[in-house]
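User: Okay, second chain of the day. Same drill as before: sequence in, structure tokens out.
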Amino acid sequence: SEGCKELRRAWIPVFSFGKHRGRRADEVPREYINWVLRKGIGDDDFRAELQLWLESQATDGARTIARSNS
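Assistant: Same drill. Structure tokens below.
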């Protein structure tokens, strides 16, 4: 529903550092996000939030593909 989409959008992590400062994770190249996580850049809480967001994106994508195949 639209309400759920708005809540999800509000939960997207925002970068407070680097060349993508102020941008939401969905606006940043996936390679950069993976690099940040690999290098341990940012604080632990931000990286945990970013990792959870990435996992939710993978789950949402799998649901979309499953729906389109049915």
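Confidence is low (pLDDT under 50) at residues 63-70.

User: Thanks, on to the next one.
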